[in-house]
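Entry 14. Ran structure prediction on the chain below.
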Amino acid sequence: MKPTFFAAVAAALFATAASAESIIEIVDPYALSAGMNAKSGAAFFTISNTGDTDDRLIDAKSDAAARVELHTHIMEDGIAKMRQVEDGFPIPAGSEHLLMRGADHVMFMGLNEPFVDGKMVAVTLVFESGLTLDVEIPVDLGRANNAEANGHGSMDHGKN
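Output, structure tokens:
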């Protein structure tokens, strides 16, 4: 009888562990650079966590650049500046986190090749839970000047 009891307990623990996880999806990814001679670029997308456990994007890796970092924009003395976010971006359970221009994003510094419109940038996203996602991010230079595509279309910029 003891082996049956332990098997039932083990099965219950496994079922709980399997259901208590983050389920991460990357939605509408795209990458930009300032032009063919640019030394840096950035990637933007929505991270959706449809699971029941919080997670956090803690790193991004790519062979596309010498350095890849998680960045955000901050205001310092009235000047917008980019800063590395060393502890990453929280992705709460049942929620999403938007990486967009002028806010959180993946930064590529020291591009190994220019970001060419229509080409793909391979990126590995690393999450606190241990999950890694390999994502092919399309370069879409047409979004560089498109506020709606950059996630700004529905933002309130103080107009009444």
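The chain has one helix and ten strands. Will compare against last week's run tomorrow.
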